[in-house]
Amino acid sequence: MSAIQLTPAERKIHRANAHHLDPVVMVGNDGVTPAVIKEIDLALISHGLIKVRVLGDDRDSRETMFHGLCEQLHAAPIQHIGKLLVLWRPQPVKEKKTDPEKMPGPREFKVLKYSSRGGQRPEMKRVTILGNQRLAAGGQVKRAKPKQKSVKKKNQT
Predict the structure, then answer these.
(1) Cβ atoms 127, 141 nearer than 8 A
(2) What b/e readout covers 15-26, taking b as 16+ CB neighbours within 10 angstroms?
(3) What distance, in Å, lies between the first and last C-alpha atoms of the chain?
(4) CB atoms within 10 A of CB 146
(5) Phi-psi category of 139—alpha, beta or left, where left has phi over 0 and alpha has psi -120 to 50?
(6) Of 44, 116, 127, 152, which cross-links 89 as Cys (Cβ 3.0–4.6 Å)?
(7) Minimal CA–CA distance to 18: which of 6, 27, 10?
(8) In DSSP terms, which residues pair with 109 in a beta bridge?
(9) Count of CB atoms within 10 A of residue 89's CB?
(10) Residue 26: phi, psi to the nearest 5?
């Protein structure tokens, strides 16, 4: 894999976005190990734009490390300033999970109503809840309260 090539304008935008970020990964005296590469890859997947702090003092080794990481991880080199390296890779598109419980529209619930007398079985009831309703603690269906207007808005109309 090769590093992603960006235009100077795109690089400038990413540099501005990375300004307030803190380093996510630190590369120690052992250099770039498989564990460090794995952590940088995970950070790129979750964040997209990251800063990496390198503890070595040799600028040339940091420069080769910077371009080597970009080649290995298929990332774009954004900035190398001092001991900080800024990398960017587009985040993968996440699939939306659809939960039928959280879908809009009418929902059905089973409600158990216990008898006031202790020995009887509880009564099972199916209740349909519409979008503007909610299920209260006692199994009662309550409508949502209308949105209240401020006093100033009431006086204007």
Answers:
(1) yes
(2) eeebeeeebbbe
(3) 65
(4) 7
(5) left
(6) 44
(7) 10
(8) 127
(9) 21
(10) -120, 130
Distance between CA 24 and CA 37 in Å, rounded? Answer: 12
Q: pLDDT tens for residues 64-74?
A: 999 999 999 99
pLDDT in tens, 11-22: 999 999 999 999
Strand, helix or coil for residue 135: strand
11 neighbors 78 (Cβ within 8 angstroms): yes
The contacts of residue 43 (CB under 8 Å, 6+ apart) are 24, 25, 50
Q: Which domains does the chain have, with CATH numbers?
A: 8-88 (3.30.110.60), 100-144 (no CATH)
Cβ-count burial 78-88 (b if 16+ within 10 Å, e if not): bbbeebbbbbb
DSSP structure string for 42-90: HHHHHHSEEEEEE----HHHHHHHHHHHHHHHT-EEEEEETTEEEEE-P
Q: What is the identity of the amino acid at 127?
A: V
Which two three-digit tokens encode residue 129? 């809840």
- Considering only CA atoms, give the Rg of the chain: 28
What 8-state DSSP symbol labels residue 136?
-
